[in-house]
């Protein structure tokens, strides 16, 4: 289901939908219904790929989640940081040498996790994320991001790895057990801003109250006029927003989600 959703909001998905609509027009010899379908496909992808459209929906999803600061820290108690995974890829050469690369979303999350770890002087950090499909090209993001955390100065001895999960729900369940084994008083949760609402709600449903620390992300557009024309970046962002909205609904239906209370918004730079 998730893979299908991502396909719909990809350039390949757009081409496939246009092709199906065009074939219907051709085979039906221009029947009104087929022409209407083609127009609807064109309107859907035009609107979805305008960066301003997913940005507006994203503002609602991220409302209340401001950058993590010292003001968010309780006065006392032990603290752990939980870093949620993203996509990680393995690349090989002809001699089977390989490199591992974390995607841009993962890099922003790792940077924020290391920053939160230092700000909170946390006892430890859990780098979470299992092995996604296709398995021959991916590695567990929990392990790959743990290596990046160490390179950013987090002591290896204070990094815990969770590499069995496949979904946010899995992460909440497994991480909650890890936290119970090494109890702390406060948990700082690091993920992308658009993913924070579903993540906080999922951890709440698993019995873990968290302090949100959304990762800083680059601007969606570089020039103002890019908000007014269809772009591949806009379509990709629309897919991400749609994925989160669908995820919240599905998690609510399955009882995996408890609506989080929003924090007070502080100005962002």
Q: What is the CATH topology classification name of the largest domain?
A: Rossmann fold
Number of helices: 9
Domain count:
2
- Order of helices and strands, N to C? HHHHEEEHEHEHEHEH
Structural class: alpha/beta
User: Considering the protein shown, what is the CATH homologous superfamily of the largest domain?
Assistant: HUPs
**Cα end-to-end separation:** 36 Å
Question: How would you describe this protein?
Answer:
The protein has 269 residues and is of the alpha/beta class. It has two domains: 2-48, no CATH class; 68-216, HUPs (Rossmann fold, 3-Layer(aba) Sandwich), CATH 3.40.50. Helices cover 48% and strands 13% of the residues. It has nine helices and seven strands, in the order ααααβββαβαβαβαβα. The chain has helices at 2-8, 11-27, 32-48, 52-62, 104-120, 141-151, 168-181, 193-205, 232-254; strands at residues 79-83, 88-92, 98-102, 124-128, 159-162, 186-192, 211-215. The strands form two sheets. It has a five-stranded parallel sheet, with helices on both faces. The chain has a two-stranded antiparallel sheet with strand order 2-3. Mean pLDDT is 89; it is low at 264-269.
Give a summary of the structure in a few sentences.
This protein has 269 residues and is an alpha/beta fold.
Write a concise keyword list for the protein shown above.
single chain; 269 residues; alpha/beta; Rossmann fold; 2 domains; five-stranded parallel β-sheet; 9 helices; 7 strands; disordered C terminus
Task: Set down the secondary structure blueprint.
Layout: H1 2-8, H2 11-27, H3 32-48, H4 52-62, E1 79-83, E2 88-92, E3 98-102, H5 104-120, E4 124-128, H6 141-151, E5 159-162, H7 168-181, E6 186-192, H8 193-205, E7 211-215, H9 232-254
Parallel strand pairs: 1-4, 1-6, 4-5, 6-7
Antiparallel strand pairs: 2-3
Helix pairs in contact: 1-9, 2-3, 4-8, 4-9, 5-6, 7-8, 8-9
